[in-house]
Design brief:
The structure holds two protein chains of two kinds.
Chain A lengths: L10 H30 L1 E2 L2 E2 L2 H8 L1 H34 L5 H12 L3 H12 L5 H10 L11 H26 L2 H9 L4 H12 L1 H16 L3 H10 L4 H8 L6 H26 L23 H28 L15 H9 L3 H32 L3 H11 L6 H12 L10 H25 L3 H9 L4 H30 L2 H6 L7 H10 L3 H26 L10
Antiparallel strand pairs in A: 1-2
Helix pairs in contact in A: 1-13, 1-16, 1-17, 1-18, 2-13, 3-4, 3-7, 3-10, 4-7, 4-14, 5-7, 5-11, 5-14, 5-24, 7-10, 7-11, 8-9, 10-13, 12-13, 13-18, 14-24, 15-24, 16-17, 16-19, 16-21, 16-23, 18-19, 19-21, 20-21, 21-24, 23-24
Chain B lengths: L1 H27 L6 H10 L1 E6 L3 H15 L2 E6 L2 H14 L6 E3 L3 H9 L3 E2 L22 E13 L24 E3 L6 H14 L2 H8 L3 E2 L6 H6 L4 E5 L1 H8 L5 E4 L5 E11 L5 H11 L2 H9 L3 E2 L20 E2 L3 H19 L2
Parallel strand pairs in B: 1-2, 1-3, 6-7, 6-8, 10-12
Antiparallel strand pairs in B: 3-10, 4-10, 5-8, 5-9, 5-10, 5-11
Helix pairs in contact in B: 2-10, 3-11, 6-12
The chains are: A mainly alpha, B alpha/beta.
């Protein structure tokens, strides 16, 4: 074990702790993955490749793979077309209302895809959607102009929910870019457009590549939108087929065989990205944005902001306004009237609907426990990775980030295979749900712990260490208080992600472990749209309270960690 | 010798007769469930009822039962497939929360019986059930209602002249983009409709329906879509009209198609590992009593027992006037995997 300046001298006494943490993380992350691989090659008579043969012989599975790839490519393109220009305008230009635009784009990231899809059904149902009805009333046409139950409809929802991801990547890249080159070009007389095209764009190339990969993977593994509008649109994708294989009678081995290729693709692409970008690929880049002079848009300032706000309006404001309206409006099919404003749907989901109240309790419980455990585990791991130079530490670093490449649904397949038989039967309990939320979100807790640790002055810890305090005590008394803000950020991200997680929950929930997301899908299934809207509003409200409450406490935008 | 034999025979017959009377005694008085059952049920105090019956109907049954016996009913209402999935899952996990289960899918009850999930129980009115096909031979389940497949439509938006009379009518191009159906994987009604229509008209029927731009959702119960005018006609069941009425959707009306009304048998059963077995038996007994059956009829389902005490609500269709079609559930069950594959080819999912 190598020990240099600033490393822990008494490390050997702490080794069991480190090994223990590493082991816990390894079991959490690797055991389910092992089970996906193992069940995919297990037939009724032992080892076999029949499951794979089955998958590739069945036309609807092959078609699902094709649809998934198509949607992923298209939505990645559309997301970049929307996300990258907005990111540039917000971070590098003198467009007005930059902060408002940024907050609205980031807020739309907090709305889960299945909720967005449900809102779009209300807006753009081909005959009775609010937009289509308005269109028919205005133009006198006998049919609407947009059909949500179609490939285009799916693409719309994919884009609306994925483009904020492209925005975040590009925004971080633009903000952290070295401004000196742009500055030099400008001094030499280059105009704004020329600087943007010849300096900024090439500098942003690695980020563009990264954003393409991330948005592509997000599209490939998306479940929310196809779960809601895939059946009526007749477009089925890999994730909905995996879900369908979990219905009675469950065919878990086949689901595993369909899952593993997905895992291989995500791993390969993220590995490629990491090779191309080095370590920066996974972490947010801290900026020097203040140094960069903003490009002056001149006459284009207002058209630019109108365009940005229109995009945000269509993808975020409109669908959520529709949702809120539906949640508070009684079933009535005549003319609009204030008298129809009602709390009936909330009463229904909270009192009459048998899964309503329990699902809210279960969601709060699982999200709280998952977030707390994730932060504890991630913080301990981050300390080890930061302070200990050993093979264990670098493996731990890798393991904590590994869940980034695991599609939620694939992980859930593994969890079911791993924990529905002895020695630990967790299937059917809330704990399997907690394991899923905790592990899938570990990277975010880990990254926020790591960056919080990096900002702590090593001297303080060194001083305490010199005075003879043992590592765990130093962590408790010195490091923890200093990094509390960062840990809270991690906690809130894990909590919010757990609450909106559907694709893992859809496979893991049972009668007694319904969560809000699965309850919403159940209400949708029965076409109880008032109930769907009310429950979605409850979900969004809980997340909004936790995120803004956290923001007050931490004093900065949580979804935007580089703004300090 | 001969006389001796005759005497022995008479004696034996007599014994058999007495024995039969003794055996039948509990049944004979069954119309009023045994005092023993009632007090045991009251001691248990509650019963958990998993049902795919419409929520308003389930709540009416609950209220009537609670009023009559003072035993609380916990209703868990979901569609047929999720209700069944949940019961199987819980049985496999050893959770056993449910006492009574009711869905609209006989094959689900055959599956549960095969898994040993059901408890044999003969309700008092078992002998009044319309046909022996409506009960399990071992009394593991009994039909509690007959759902009638129908074409429900929005009478505010569909002109009277345009109301379809038969399933076949739906292939008329004037209904293009106006029809909604459920998915065979999720809806018992849809499974039955597809099975029978394929038998009558072949898969060409559904190929044509697809060309007519039918919208396929998970469940066939799409009152909300029809009320809003997203689609105008839904291929589902007659009881949905009553459901719609209770949900402030008075514009939903229905026709029983002239080319065939498929009867969807809705069985009820006591679960073998019911935590409240006596209250469960009491509930099943009640559901199949004339009083319970009257409530089903008010909800739009045809009663499964033949009894003058069942009061049909005014306007309930006279079943003698319609072409009722029984479905052989064994044949249906055999057909289902292939039928599902074919349906998925056409409509995805």
């Amino acid at each position: 074990m190598q020990r240099g300046a600033g490393r822990w001298r008494s490390v050997s006494t702490q080794t069991p702790v480190f090994a223990g943490v590493a082991l816990v993380v390894a079991v959490l992350v690797l055991l389910p993955l092992y089970h996906v691989a193992a069940s995919s090659v297990t037939g009724p008579h032992g080892l076999s490749l029949d499951n794979y043969a089955n998958v590739f012989r069945t036309p609807r599975f092959v078609a699902a793979v094709g649809n998934s790839l198509l949607l992923a490519v298209l939505s990645s393109l559309t997301s970049m077309l929307l996300g990258a220009p907005i990111a540039w305008l917000v971070s590098r230009s003198d467009m007005p209302l930059r902060r408002t635009t940024r907050v609205l784009v980031l807020a739309s990231f907090a709305v889960p895809a299945f909720v967005n899809a449900l809102s779009w059904v209300l807006l753009a149902g081909p005959n009775a959607g609010a937009l289509n009805k308005a269109w028919m009333a205005v133009t006198g046409s006998d049919h609407g102009f947009i059909d949500i139950f179609s490939m285009t409809g799916l693409l719309l929802v994919y884009t609306a929910t994925i483009y904020p991801l492209a925005f975040i990547f590009m925004h971080n890249a633009f903000e952290s870019m070295d401004a000196r080159m742009e500055h030099a070009a400008r001094l030499l007389g280059a105009g704004g457009a020329r600087v943007a095209l010849t300096i900024t764009l090439p500098l942003a190339r690695p980020a563009i590549l990264a954003a393409f990969i991330i948005t592509f993977l997000e599209g490939l593994t998306s479940y929310g939108a196809p779960a809601v509008i895939g059946v009526p649109a007749r477009v089925y994708v890999i994730t909905t087929q995996i879900w369908s294989l979990f219905q009675y009678p469950p065919q878990i081995a086949l689901a595993a065989a369909l899952s593993l290729p997905l895992l291989i693709v995500t791993t390969a692409l993220l590995a490629a990205q990491r090779l191309l970008l080095g370590r920066r690929g996974f972490t947010t880049i801290h900026g020097k944005a203040g140094l960069a002079p903003r490009t002056e848009l001149g006459a284009w300032r207002w058209p630019a902001v109108v365009l940005c706000l229109m995009i945000v309006f269509v993808t975020f404001v409109l669908p959520n306004a529709m949702l809120v309206f539906e949640a508070f409006y009684a079933r009535n099919y005549g003319a609009l009237s204030l008298r129809n404003v009602t709390l009936e749907h909330f009463r229904y989901v909270l009192v009459d609907y048998i899964d309503g109240a329990p699902s809210i309790r279960n969601s709060l419980f699982t999200a709280t426990i998952a977030a707390t455990l994730a932060v504890l585990l991630a913080f301990t791991s981050a300390v080890i990775v930061a302070h200990v130079k050993s093979r264990v530490a670098s493996i731990l670093n890798f393991l904590c980030l590994l869940p980034l490449v695991i599609p939620s649904m694939v992980f859930a397949v593994g969890l079911v295979a791993a924990y529905s038989r002895g020695p630990f039967v967790l299937y059917g309990t809330l704990w399997i749900m907690i394991l899923a939320f905790l592990t899938l979100n570990l990277p975010y807790a880990f990254m926020s712990s790591s960056s919080a640790l990096a900002s702590v002055h090593r001297e303080l810890e060194s001083a305490a260490r010199t005075l003879g305090a043992p590592l765990l005590r130093v962590l408790r008394d010195i490091t923890m208080p200093l990094v509390a803000g960062g840990l809270l950020t991690g906690w809130i991200v894990v909590f919010a992600n757990s609450l909106r997680e559907l694709s893992a929950a859809a496979l893991l929930f049972t009668s007694r472990t319904t969560v809000i997301a699965t309850a919403i899908m159940d209400l949708d299934y029965a076409s109880n749209w008032g109930g769907v809207a009310a429950m979605s509003v409850i979900l969004l409200a809980i997340n909004a309270i936790v995120i803004t409450g956290g923001y007050r406490f931490v004093g900065r935008n949580l979804l935007d960690p580089h703004r300090r | 010798m001969k006389t001796a034999l005759a005497i022995i025979t008479i004696l034996c017959r007599g014994t058999a007769f007495v024995a039969a009377i003794a055996l039948c005694a509990p049944l004979a008085f069954g119309a009023d469930p045994g005092a023993a059952l009632l007090s045991a049920a009251k001691k248990e105090g509650q019963v958990t009822y998993y049902t795919s019956a419409d929520l308003a109907l389930a709540n009416k049954l609950k209220a009537a039962f609670e009023k009559k016996y003072g035993v609380t009913v916990n209703v868990l209402r979901q569609s047929s497939a999720p209700t069944f999935n949940r019961a199987v899952q819980e049985f496999d996990l050893g959770v056993n929360a449910a006492d009574v289960i009711e869905t609209s899918v006989v094959s689900a009850f055959q599956d549960m019986k095969a898994k040993g999930m059901l408890m044999s129980f003969t309700p008092a009115t078992a002998n009044l059930i319309r046909s022996p096909k409506l009960s399990d031979p071992d009394n593991d389940w009994h039909a509690v209602k007959l759902e009638l497949t129908s074409l429900n439509y929005n009478k505010d938006l569909l002109k009277p002249a345009d109301v379809p009379k038969t399933w076949k009518d739906l292939l008329d191009p004037k209904y293009k983009g106006k029809i909604v159906q459920g998915h065979i994987k999720a809806s018992g009604d849809t499974g039955l409709i597809v099975f029978n229509l394929v038998k009558m008209y072949g898969w060409e029927y559904f190929e044509a329906l697809r060309k007519n731009d039918v919208l396929t959702m998970q469940a066939c119960t799409q009152n909300e879509l029809v009320a809003r005018g997203e689609r105008l006609i839904m291929m589902c069941d007659y009881s949905q009209i009553e459901t719609a009425r209770t949900q402030h959707q008075p514009m939903i009306a229905g026709v029983l198609p002239a080319d065939g009304v498929f009867m969807l048998v809705g069985p009820v059963a006591v679960l073998a590992k019911a935590p409240h077995p006596n209250a469960a038996r009491l509930l099943v007994d009640f559901l199949l009593s004339p009083e319970g059956q009257t409530i089903y009829a008010e909800g739009g389902d045809a009663p499964s027992i033949n009894s003058p005490d069942v009061k049909l609500p005014p306007g309930f269709p006279d079943l003698k006037q319609h072409k009722l079609i029984d479905t052989d559930m064994t044949e249906y069950r055999k057909w289902l995997p292939e039928g599902t594959a074919r349906f998925v080819e056409l409509f995805g999912g």
